[in-house]
Structures are given as C-alpha cells and as structure tokens.
Amino acid sequence: MSFQAKVRSQDGVVTFRLAGELDSRSAPRFHEMITQAVVPAARKLVLQMDELSYMSSAGLRCLVYAHQRAGNGVDIELVGTQPEVAETIRLTGFDRSLIMRAHR
C-alpha cells in the first residue's frame, strides 16, 4: 500500500493523518510536510497512525525530525499506532519522548 498523508492545523494543534507505508521512498514527502506544517506557533502535534501499516527507520527519522522541529514544550501524540509500528518506536526508546494513545 502506498503512503498517504493529510495535514491540518487548528488552534495551534497540527494533526497528521498517515496511512500506508512510511519508508525510504515516502519519508522525504512526509519530511517536507513536517517542515511546512510545524511552525513556532504549534503547541501540539497529533499523528493519527491507525492506518499506517509499516514504518522503516526513515519514517522514524521523520518522527525525530518532527520532535526537533517542534521544540521543547510541544507534545507529540501518536494515536492508534499499529502494534508493528509501535514496536519499532519502542525498540529505539523514542516512545519515552512522546505520548502513545490507543484512540483519540
């Protein structure tokens, strides 16, 4: 399944809805979306990941980039993360830098 991403921003909350496979082919597009959408006024990032079936290390680097771009004091919340994707995040220890929720 190809990667799909939608983004919206409202009242300082930037929400990404991700679907498909976030890998080395799709990561540059997602990286660019983060660059454009995450601005200093953002106070929270929400990633709806219930339809994201796979994430490679390139996708994980995008999450790290989002964390860096958002800066201190900005919560990053992953919602509905599939078990395989959640395991990738946990193995790196990055789950300690964000909030993971089953549903929103």
TrEMBL record:
Protein name: Anti-sigma factor antagonist
UniProt source species: Kibdelosporangium persicum
Residue ranges of domain STAS in the record: 3-104
Cross-referenced Pfam families: STAS
NCBIfam families the UniProt entry points to: ant_ant_sig
Highest taxon above the source species: Bacteria
InterPro entries linked to this entry: Anti-sigma_ant, STAS_dom, STAS_dom_sf
CDD domains per record: STAS_anti-anti-sigma_factors
Family note: Belongs to the anti-sigma-factor antagonist family.
